[in-house]
Design a protein that fits this description.
By secondary structure, this protein is an alpha+beta fold. It has 2 helices and 5 strands; from the N terminus they run ββββαβα.
Length: about 90
Amino acid sequence: MTDITFDPDGPRYVLPLGDEEAEVTLSLTGAVMTIRRVFVPPAHEGQGLAARLMAHVAGDARDRGLKIVPVCSYAAAWFRRHPDQRGLLA
Protein backbone atom coordinates (compact mmCIF):
# COMPACT_ATOMS: atom_id res chain seq x y z
CA MET A 1 0.00 0.00 0.00
CA THR A 2 1.22 3.50 -0.82
CA ASP A 3 2.70 5.60 1.94
CA ILE A 4 0.94 8.45 3.68
CA THR A 5 2.13 11.90 2.59
CA PHE A 6 1.61 15.42 3.91
CA ASP A 7 0.08 17.94 1.52
CA PRO A 8 0.90 21.41 2.89
CA ASP A 9 -1.53 23.05 0.49
CA GLY A 10 -4.46 21.28 2.20
CA PRO A 11 -3.13 21.07 4.75
CA ARG A 12 -3.84 17.38 4.98
CA TYR A 13 -2.33 13.92 5.20
CA VAL A 14 -3.21 11.71 2.26
CA LEU A 15 -3.26 7.95 1.76
CA PRO A 16 -3.86 7.13 -1.94
CA LEU A 17 -6.24 4.20 -2.50
CA GLY A 18 -6.24 3.66 -6.23
CA ASP A 19 -8.71 6.18 -7.64
CA GLU A 20 -9.69 7.39 -4.15
CA GLU A 21 -7.96 8.87 -1.11
CA ALA A 22 -8.23 8.55 2.63
CA GLU A 23 -7.27 11.76 4.39
CA VAL A 24 -6.87 13.71 7.57
CA THR A 25 -7.69 17.39 7.08
CA LEU A 26 -6.36 19.87 9.58
CA SER A 27 -5.34 23.41 10.31
CA LEU A 28 -2.03 24.58 11.73
CA THR A 29 -1.73 27.56 14.05
CA GLY A 30 1.72 27.99 15.47
CA ALA A 31 2.64 24.72 17.15
CA VAL A 32 -0.96 23.46 17.30
CA MET A 33 -2.46 21.06 14.78
CA THR A 34 -6.26 20.96 14.82
CA ILE A 35 -7.59 17.76 13.27
CA ARG A 36 -10.82 18.67 11.51
CA ARG A 37 -11.71 15.45 9.68
CA VAL A 38 -10.57 11.86 9.26
CA PHE A 39 -12.07 10.38 6.11
CA VAL A 40 -11.87 6.93 4.54
CA PRO A 41 -13.96 6.23 1.42
CA PRO A 42 -16.83 3.83 2.17
CA ALA A 43 -15.40 1.11 -0.08
CA HIS A 44 -12.28 1.03 2.12
CA GLU A 45 -13.86 1.22 5.58
CA GLY A 46 -13.16 -1.49 8.13
CA GLN A 47 -9.55 -2.04 7.06
CA GLY A 48 -7.87 -0.01 9.81
CA LEU A 49 -6.93 2.83 7.47
CA ALA A 50 -8.25 5.62 9.70
CA ALA A 51 -6.24 4.24 12.62
CA ARG A 52 -3.18 3.97 10.38
CA LEU A 53 -3.62 7.60 9.35
CA MET A 54 -4.00 8.74 12.95
CA ALA A 55 -0.90 6.85 14.08
CA HIS A 56 1.06 8.52 11.29
CA VAL A 57 -0.30 11.98 12.14
CA ALA A 58 0.54 11.49 15.83
CA GLY A 59 4.08 10.42 15.02
CA ASP A 60 4.60 13.32 12.64
CA ALA A 61 3.22 15.81 15.18
CA ARG A 62 5.60 14.42 17.80
CA ASP A 63 8.56 14.66 15.40
CA ARG A 64 7.63 18.25 14.53
CA GLY A 65 7.06 19.32 18.16
CA LEU A 66 3.35 20.01 17.60
CA LYS A 67 0.39 19.60 19.92
CA ILE A 68 -2.95 18.29 18.65
CA VAL A 69 -6.56 19.41 19.12
CA PRO A 70 -8.84 16.60 17.87
CA VAL A 71 -12.03 18.35 16.73
CA CYS A 72 -13.04 15.35 14.61
CA SER A 73 -14.95 12.74 16.63
CA TYR A 74 -12.88 9.88 15.19
CA ALA A 75 -9.61 11.60 16.12
CA ALA A 76 -10.89 12.24 19.66
CA ALA A 77 -11.94 8.59 19.99
CA TRP A 78 -8.54 7.46 18.69
CA PHE A 79 -6.82 9.41 21.47
CA ARG A 80 -9.16 7.87 24.07
CA ARG A 81 -8.16 4.41 22.78
CA HIS A 82 -4.45 5.31 22.82
CA PRO A 83 -3.71 6.81 26.23
CA ASP A 84 0.02 6.57 25.49
CA GLN A 85 -0.48 9.30 22.86
CA ARG A 86 -2.39 11.76 25.07
CA GLY A 87 0.78 13.75 25.76
CA LEU A 88 0.32 15.19 22.27
CA LEU A 89 -2.99 16.82 23.17
CA ALA A 90 -3.03 20.61 23.49
